[in-house]
Design a protein that fits this description.
single chain, mainly alpha, 2 domains, about 55% helix
């Protein structure tokens, strides 16, 4: 996967989770760009992997996310949906209208 910008992990750790300072984080456009880069890389990886490779055991360091390489990749959609739910809270706090 493409590397995230220097300092990205530190901006998004447990210590910064309660920060409401917009200057401490990326802009919406920056987040969307990073998401698109990661998604494009994921799709490129899927194009390269064979069915046999997708059925291999996931690497130990990410085994908690799925038993196989394919399961880990499939889990990305659930991960994104979890974050989408968080955006609902942000929108409400900003006084935005409900989208649905």
């Amino acid at each position: 996967m493409p590397a995230l910008p220097d300092g990205f992990a530190e901006k998004h750790d447990k210590e910064t989770a309660t920060s409401d300072d917009p200057a401490a984080f990326c802009t919406k456009d920056e987040y969307l760009t990073l998401m698109a880069e990661q998604r494009d890389a994921t799709l490129a990886l899927l194009d390269r992997l064979s069915d046999e490779e997708l059925e291999q055991a996931a690497p130990e360091k990410i085994l908690q996310f799925g038993a196989t390489v394919g399961a880990v990749i499939a889990g990305q959609s659930a991960h994104w949906m979890m974050h989408a739910g968080q955006w609902v809270i942000v929108r409400r706090q900003l006084g935005k209208v409900a989208m649905f």
